């Protein structure tokens, strides 16, 4: 029992130790310090003693021996008040003895990016780099026999530095000027291989195996290799055009068909086994082609048309399947008319051949150069390769001709040409002809085939970039690295010795080599067996377990994937219940309640998602954060709290001040006391200055620290390259450009003056370098790169992640909602299915299971129980729907109703290779893929495309609505599709694009009642665009219908293109332009017609007004005339006409007329007269009728007198003022009302009198 427990405990301890060892070995970066120069002019320790030996009694210098200098480095957390003791939390390091009193590393000074192990201290770390740090650099004396090794007795100098630094390749140079020694060094922080980010905690290891196929950019983001996609680039992109429903691929460019499908794109079904001349639409069908029948379509119903067995002009007649008879012409007989009775009558032998009749027909004896049954084949005399010495044979009629090389001649190129006849040798004794060439015997100092090269000249001698040098004995070639030989024409093979180990493949470079190591090995010669868990590829604090050439990541419950970098969708494997827009409940055994509530991470690490109605949400932020997604850290550095030029770094509800040299404290408000370490020696008094000190020396001591008897200046007096001048009792430093101060210890211009940090980053300068502290959401050396908050992918169900600055937003795919698109919208919630049908929820749609007799998307169509339909030899039940090329058909009670889209001739892939039927052509049964010379290529190459043949010619097109024509009317619209050429698949034609449009489901909906015609062509104005013309036509004639119909059709097509679809061609569309007629023709003339109508009405009104005015005027004149006539007639009985004055009656009448011509008190235009006239008008109208009755009666003055006297003094009066002016005619100026009085007979007997 004890042994078992002991073994168990031992195993536990071993596991713990292995885990600790694994964690320790997983560093994510390293801090590197490179010493550049060290100067300890006097060879002293920090306490003023000599490192070795005693001081010289004369000049008090330590001259016996130099210090044995080595360095220690301690890296701690950032400390406001630095303590030089205690643990080095971030790490520590040291060097061996690397020099004496003063030394430098020239290579580190001249080239800081070059590796130099001397004076280099590397401190690895295995945590996220905290950016801020405290660095303690100490110089020590290794061995001093006069001092003990305890405490700080052997300390030479100590440098303390606290600031921030981001990982990068650039080094930050620091010059430290101490009291005893000065030293210069550079520092930098670098991430380990495959680690990225400002904290070296972002892992991205390029790989090309079954776990992923991706590379990493400079920020550690994965980028898929060509042919791969997905979060980890594990999904292969199948061959362009591969039907993903019927084909799959495990490698890019493949298209492996599923069971029942075949072809390069898996879009052709496999027919029934044994099917000979049949096709299929679905797997395992056998639909016979034209003129073929039988169960397996093996019986030829048109043997004559298929095989054409009758020869010599015989007529073939089909009798039964696979049976026929031949009707032979005269002179021929046999089953196939193959027997010639007098075969030579028709002279069948060509090219002078002689015909001889034989039992089987005829036989031709051909002349030389011809062969074949009828001497029609030219004999190939070049078949025997008669031309020698590389000559080219040209076949001719009954012969051949050889084209010989220059050094050969003759009919078959067998005669050697004497090249010396052309005197090719220049500087030679003689020329000797050889077989197939010649040789020149050159003079001394000349070389080359023609003796044209001067041996002692450098011209053209050295090859491969070598340098030629002439000398007394000739020339010498100084070869470039990697080449050898007299003329540097031989490349040195660095791989000849086989330097690569463990199966590595060697590649020769210039003067070097490179090993391509197999998986699991690294190093220059593939000598190191790599550990897949070092560095740790697992993310989100998952533990890595090493396997054979692989690793395994133990992910937590919230993550999954090969490296635990992908958020786990618990709803894929478990039943999930959506609680609200922020929370889902997952069944689990890990909790007491059996339910695990998972909250959305849309609010980031500093916020909590709060659900709102209708799938919305809000974020409740932690203290110190704000924003819609709690992504903004409240800036605690506003207003700036740091004093004396300190740099404020914002934290979470806090801040930190980085003080310039000479200041310290939480707010940089405390002056550093440089005299605290007693730098002044030999009794000197220290005076504290800003970032410096001053020593008042005693007893003729000199120097910066009162350490010299001879001079005020030494190598450490002036800092940063300043020059010291001795002025007797003091010194003065002349500083280099950029430095000021009494000892050149203060930088004049900071590296942060140019504001190199972008996007609100804070610059922290140090020496000749700077570091940018980026705000959350930004990264890079200058905070110019927006960190990808969408990695890993936070959106579920195909949602698209929109990356913001330290936030993200999920744009959900249709049918999903919620902050992370986790909620599937229930389309059945609105009860869309009618008449008792059952609704089945789908993704972004629903399905209505209709009862018997109902159909339609909502079961709204009453179809009843009807008859089935027969179409193309098949039977379809009542109410069923099916596809017919680019149209949709439906069976309604025995009647087939199809949409009316003109499909055109469908593009297909041509047969290549000539073997077997073309299985890749997606043509309907009974059609084959044929070449078409008018296909327009959009993305080359397009030679593999043809069109499906049709038994009947296509119907003619009756339309003016064509692409690039500029024509538009009420039934014509023009759509321009602009493509991104880089995304268009190779081998795409304009006809492919047009076919895609015709096969859109929306096109079938638009063509229910009218025929929809879609034509395409390459745009004349833009080579990246295709112009599409859409029009409606009715019964072959162009339809001049409602403009709104074609506008709706064009909008519907554009809307379908804007949605997500599986067509690779349509995914390349970047812009769509639509053109329709602006205004119908009837609307164009409406405004002019209305203007004309209003003008006519206005003129008519004016005419009516004028006419009415004139008529009114005439009526008034007639009324005035009647009134005046009445007045005149009333005057007549008032005249006193005595019997004795009868003869003077005419004169009296004339006298009365004269009086009426100018009445003394008549007014013509007075207002009073008009009013009286209007008032009396009606009365005069009434009185006129009565006066007319007596117009013919005579009025005598005697009668009046009798009446007057008889009645006892009745007086009759008349007021003539209202009487209108007389109306004169053009013929007489007299009053017309008086013209009848001259002829009137005055009656003597008056019965009545009217006034």
TrEMBL record:
Disulfide bonds join 191-200, 204-216, 224-233, 328-337, 366-375, 404-413, 442-451, 458-468, 479-488, 517-526, 555-564, 621-630, 659-668, 697-706, 735-744, 774-783, 812-821, 850-859. GO terms for molecular function: calcium ion binding; Notch binding. The chain crosses the membrane at residues 1086-1108. Keywords: Calcium, Developmental protein, Disulfide bond, EGF-like domain, Glycoprotein, Membrane, Notch signaling pathway, Repeat, Signal, Transmembrane, Transmembrane helix. Residues 1167-1178 have a biased composition (Acidic residues). Residues 300-338, 340-376, 378-414, 416-452, 454-489, 491-527, 529-565, 593-631, 633-669, 671-707, 709-745, 748-784, 786-822, 824-860 form the EGF-like domain. Residues 1-26 form the signal peptide. Pfam families: DSL, EGF, EGF_DL_JAG, EGF_TEN, hEGF, JAG1, MNNL. It is found in: Membrane. GO terms for cellular component: membrane. InterPro entries: DSL, EGF, EGF-like_Ca-bd_dom, EGF-like_CS, EGF-type_Asp/Asn_hydroxyl_site, EGF_Ca-bd_CS, Growth_fac_rcpt_cys_sf, JAG1_1/2_dom. It is a single-pass type I membrane protein. Residues 1116-1184, 1215-1234 are annotated as: Disordered. Residues 1140-1155 have a biased composition (Basic and acidic residues). Residues 189-233 form the DSL domain. The keyword Cell membrane does not apply. This is Delta-like protein.
């Amino acid at each position: 029992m004890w042994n078992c427990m002991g073994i168990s405990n031992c195993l536990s301890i071993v596991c713990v130790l292995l885990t600790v060892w694994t964690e320790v070995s997983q560093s994510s970066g390293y801090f590197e310090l490179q010493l550049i120069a060290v100067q300890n002019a006097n060879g002293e320790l920090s306490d003023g003693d000599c490192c070795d030996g005693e001081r010289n009694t004369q000049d008090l210098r330590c001259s016996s021996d130099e210090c044995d200098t080595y360095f220690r480095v301690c890296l701690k957390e950032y400390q406001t008040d630095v303590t030089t003791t205690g643990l080095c939390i971030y790490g520590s390091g040291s060097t061996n003895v690397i020099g004496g009193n003063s030394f430098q590393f020239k290579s580190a000074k001249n080239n800081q990016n070059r590796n130099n192990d001397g004076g280099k201290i590397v401190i690895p770390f295995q945590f996220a780099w905290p950016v801020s740090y405290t660095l303690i650099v100490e110089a020590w004396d290794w061995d001093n026999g006069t001092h003990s090794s305890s405490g700080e007795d052997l300390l030479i100098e100590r440098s303390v530095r606290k600031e921030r630094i981001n990982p990068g390749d650039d080094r930050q140079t620091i010059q430290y000027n101490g009291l005893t020694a000065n030293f210069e060094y550079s520092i930098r922080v670098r991430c380990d291989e495959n680690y990225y980010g400002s904290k070296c905690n972002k892992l991205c290891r390029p790989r090309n195996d079954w776990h992923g196929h991706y590379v990493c950019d400079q920020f550690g983001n994965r980028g898929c290799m060509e042919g791969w996609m997905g979060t980890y680039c594990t999904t292969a992109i199948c061959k362009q055009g591969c039907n993903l429903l019927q084909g799959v691929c495990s490698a890019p460019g493949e298209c492996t068909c599923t069971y029942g499908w075949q072809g390069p794109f898996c879009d052709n079904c496999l027919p029934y086994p044994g099917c000979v001349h049949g096709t299929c639409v679905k797997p395992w069908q056998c639909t016979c082609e034209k003129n073929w029948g039988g169960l397996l379509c093996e019986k030829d119903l048109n043997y004559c048309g298929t095989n054409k067995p009758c020869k010599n002009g015989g007529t073939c007649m089909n009798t039964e399947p696979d049976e026929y008879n031949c009707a032979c012409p005269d002179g021929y007989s046999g089953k196939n008319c193959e027997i010639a009775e007098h075969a030579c009558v028709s002279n069948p032998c060509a090219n002078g051949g002689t015909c001889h009749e034989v039992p089987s027909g005829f036989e031709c004896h051909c002349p030389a150069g011809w062969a074949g049954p009828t001497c029609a084949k030219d004999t190939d005399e070049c078949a025997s390769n008669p031309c020698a010495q590389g000559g080219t044979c040209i076949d001719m009629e009954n012969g051949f001709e050889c084209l010989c090389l220059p050094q050969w001649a003759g009919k078959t190129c067998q005669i050697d040409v004497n090249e010396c006849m052309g005197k090719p040798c220049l500087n030679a004794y003689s020329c000797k002809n050889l077989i197939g060439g010649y040789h020149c015997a050159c003079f001394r100092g000349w070389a080359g085939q023609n003796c044209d090269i001067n041996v002692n000249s450098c011209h053209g001698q050295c090859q491969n970039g070598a340098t030629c040098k002439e000398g007394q004995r000739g020339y010498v070639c100084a070869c470039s690295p990697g080449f050898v030989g007299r003329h540097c024409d031989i490349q040195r093979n660095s791989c000849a010795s086989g330097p690569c180990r463990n199966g590595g493949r060697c590649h020769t470079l210039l003067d070097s080599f490179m090993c391509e190591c197999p998986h699991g090995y690294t190093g220059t010669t593939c000598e190191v067996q790599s550990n897949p868990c070092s560095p740790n590829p697992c993310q989100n604090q998952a533990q890595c377990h090493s396997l054979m050439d692989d690793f395994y990541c133990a992910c937590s419950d919230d993550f999954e994937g090969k490296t635990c970098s992908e958020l786990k969708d618990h709803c894929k494997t478990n039943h999930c219940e959506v609680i609200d827009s922020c929370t889902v409940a997952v069944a689990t055994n890990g909790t007491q309640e059996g339910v695990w509530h998972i909250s959305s991470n849309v609010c980031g690490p500093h916020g909590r998602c709060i659900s709102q109605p209708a799938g919305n949400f809000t974020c409740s932020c932690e203290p110190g954060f704000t924003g819609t997604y709690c992504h903004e850290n409240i800036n605690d550095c506003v207003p700036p709290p740091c004093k004396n030029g300190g740099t404020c770094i914002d934290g979470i509800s806090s801040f930190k001040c980085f003080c310039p040299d000479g200041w310290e404290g939480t707010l940089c408000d405390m002056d550093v006391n440089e005299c605290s370490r007693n730098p002044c020696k030999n009794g000197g008094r220290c005076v504290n200055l800003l970032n410096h000190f001053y020593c008042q020396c005693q007893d003729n001591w000199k120097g910066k620290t009162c350490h010299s008897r001879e001079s005020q200046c030494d190598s450490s007096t002036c800092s940063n390259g300043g020059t010291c001048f001795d002025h007797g009792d003091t010194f003065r430093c002349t500083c280099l450009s950029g430095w000021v101060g009494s000892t050149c210890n203060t930088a004049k211009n900071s590296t942060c003056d140019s504001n190199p940090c972008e996007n609100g980053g804070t610059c922290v300068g140090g020496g000749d370098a700077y570091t940018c502290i980026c705000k959350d959401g930004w990264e890079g050396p200058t905070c110019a790169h927006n960190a990808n908050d969408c990695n890993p992918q936070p959106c579920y169900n195909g949602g698209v992640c929109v990356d913001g600055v330290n936030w993200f937003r999920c744009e959900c795919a249709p049918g999903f909602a919620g902050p992370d698109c986790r909620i599937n919208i229930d389309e059945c919630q609105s009860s869309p299915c009618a008449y008792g049908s059952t609704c089945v929820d789908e993704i972004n749609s629903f399905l209505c299971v209709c009862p018997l007799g109902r159909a339609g998307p909502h079961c709204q169509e009453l179809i009843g129980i009807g008859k089935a339909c027969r179409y193309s030899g098949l039977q379809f039940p009542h109410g069923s729907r099916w596809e017919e090329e680019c149209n949709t058909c439906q069976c309604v009670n025995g009647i087939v109703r199809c949409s009316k889209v003109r499909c055109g001739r469908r593009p297909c892939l041509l047969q290549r290779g000539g073997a077997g039927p073309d299985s890749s052509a997606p043509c309907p049964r009974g059609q084959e893929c044929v070449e078409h010379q008018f296909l327009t290529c959009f993305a080359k190459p397009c030679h593999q495309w043809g069109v499906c043949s049709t038994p009947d010619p296509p119907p003619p097109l009756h339309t003016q609505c064509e692409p690039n024509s500029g024509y538009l009317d009420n039934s014509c619209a023009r759509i321009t599709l602009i493509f991104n050429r880089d995304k268009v698949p190779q081998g795409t034609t304009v006809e492919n694009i047009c076919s895609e449009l015709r096969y859109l489901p929306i096109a079938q909906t638009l063509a229910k009642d009218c025929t929809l015609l879609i034509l395409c062509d390459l745009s004349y104005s833009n080579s990246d665009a295709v112009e599409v013309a859409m029009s409606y036509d009715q019964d072959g004639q162009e339809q001049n219908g409602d403009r709104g119909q074609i506008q709706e059709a064009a909008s519907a097509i554009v809307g379908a293109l804007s949605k997500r679809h599986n067509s690779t061609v349509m995914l390349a569309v970047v812009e769509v332009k639509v053109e329709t007629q602006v205004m119908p023709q009837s609307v164009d003339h409406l405004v002019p017609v209305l203007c004309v109508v209003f003008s006519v009405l206005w003129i008519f009104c004016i005419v009516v007004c004028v006419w009415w005015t004139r008529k009114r005027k005439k009526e008034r004149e007639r009324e005035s005339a009647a009134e005046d006539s009445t007045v005149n007639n009333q005057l007549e009985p008032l005249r006193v006409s005595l019997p004795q004055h009868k003869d003077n009656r005419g004169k009296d009448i004339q006298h009365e007329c004269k009086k009426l011509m100018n009445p003394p008190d008549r007014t013509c235009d007075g207002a009073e007269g008009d009013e009286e006239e209007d008032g009396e008008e009606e009365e005069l109208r009434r009185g006129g009728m009565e006066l007319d009755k007596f117009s013919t009666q005579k009025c005598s003055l005697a009668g009046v007198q009798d009446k007057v006297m008889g009645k006892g003094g009745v007086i009759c009066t008349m007021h003539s003022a209202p009487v209108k002016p007389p109306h004169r005619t053009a013929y007489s100026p007299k009053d017309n009302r008086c013209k009848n009085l001259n002829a009137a007979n005055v009656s003597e007997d008056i019965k009545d009198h009217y006034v």
